[in-house]
Amino acid sequence: MTTRIEATRLIPGRGDVVNSGVVIFDDSAISYAGAADGAPATPDADVVVTDTVMPGMWECHGHFIGIYTANIDEVWGARPQLLSMRVTADARRALHAGFTSVRELGGLGSFLAFAIEEGQVEGPNVYASGGMLSMTGGHGDVHGMDIADARSQIARHWGEDNIVDGPDEARAGVRRMLRLGARVIKIHASGGVLSQLDDPHLPQFSKEELEAIVDEATRMERLVAAHTHGKRGMMAAIDAGIKTLEHGTYLDEEVADAMIENDVMLVPTRWVVEFLTVEGEEKGMPEYAKKKAAAAGAKHADGIALAVDKGVKIALGTDIFGVGLWGRNGEELALMVDCGMTPLQAIESATANGPDTLGPQAPNAGQLLEGMDADVICVSGDPTTDVSILATTENVTHVFKGGTRYKG
Ligand SMILES: [Zn+2]
């Protein structure tokens, strides 16, 4: 069955909007995307008429972990089987909100990816990291229990222990993530907010550990994503050859210049900072996180605005993690516009830039171009004038993933 989408405007993901555009696909790839004038005839096509057609969006930093609160300890107090059931609903929410691809940076995503690929769960394409490599006492450790329990809890919930110390263990840690099916390697290169004892300003992992991780990941054709708030952690990550910085809270001119020079992308996760500031308290954010969240919140938007201004390449990521929060991923676009992007730049960060966060594992997707995967959404309204319409699931009227219709 051929699908033909006729739109008032076609947003290709990168480049100019085409007024009166058509997208055609009859299998998993797009066969035509462009002006209605040049479109081939498709007499037997299933025709969809819409305001806007654009590529399916990319969430480049999320966690499928199945909790209801803003307290990570909820994970360790629950059975992994139950948490796993819950994330299947979050996967569906993301897809129906127009997100056809998710880079999942720690949690149950690697298992979810298999179930979705098998066709047993309805959800986006998931490119998962397995766990999140962390040094002992780092952001990916569990500080409120002894180390043996922490390791076994992490392994029990997410498939493998992710605490590593020294270059050899760091390398072995990458290999453990690969045996979970990791498509990207996630590490913690600075302290974080939702962990008890570490300081977001301080770097985590030594130079030797970072280099071992990057070396092993690169050899296995995986890109490394580094959680970083503080400047020293960001600079160390860039020096070690890491290609995406997550959060980037205390980003300054020197960091932005180094990112551009070394072809490093930023995944800002503005959403989670806003969420913790506005809703964290009622969602049970632990006491220890409140001060850290407030301090990071005060600086984060300035860092993102600077990155936008300097021309750092940015991909959309929210750090969304909770049950039912998934599906709100599109709120990030308006937050990016608040930080200085044009609506079209925000859409590019949410579409065409997404696959670049996967390096050699990237699919041929993210734009409406002939030959690319038919990950396509229809939207009622014009997101180039009001990008906030992409925050509401109901405005996304049709969702196609790999040419298959999941909504509409
Ligand atoms: Zn995260």
How would you explain this protein's 3D organization?
With 408 residues, this protein is of the alpha/beta class. The protein folds into two domains: 3-55 and 366-407, Roll (Urease, subunit C, domain 1), CATH 2.30.40.10; 57-361, TIM Barrel (Alpha-Beta Barrel). Helices cover 34% and strands 21% of the residues. The protein has twelve helices and 15 strands. A seven-stranded mixed beta sheet has the order 3-2-1-4-13-14-15, with no helix packed on it. Strands 7-6-5-12 form a four-stranded parallel beta sheet. Strands 8-9-10-11 form a four-stranded parallel beta sheet. Helix 5 runs parallel beside helix 6 and helix 9 packs antiparallel against helix 10 (287-310). The mean pLDDT is 96. The structure holds zinc ion. Zinc ion binds next to strand 5.
How are the SSEs ordered, and which strands pair?
Layout lengths: L2 E8 L7 E8 L4 E6 L10 E10 L1 E11 L5 H4 L3 H17 L2 E6 L4 H9 L7 E4 L18 H12 L7 H13 L6 E4 L18 H13 L4 E5 L2 H10 L3 E4 L5 H9 L3 E3 L2 H10 L7 H24 L9 E3 L8 H8 L4 H8 L25 E4 L16 E6 L2 E4 L1
Parallel strand pairs: 1-4, 5-6, 5-12, 6-7, 8-9, 9-10, 10-11
Antiparallel strand pairs: 1-2, 2-3, 4-13, 13-14, 14-15
Helix pairs in contact: 5-6, 9-10, 11-12
This protein binds zinc ion (ZN).
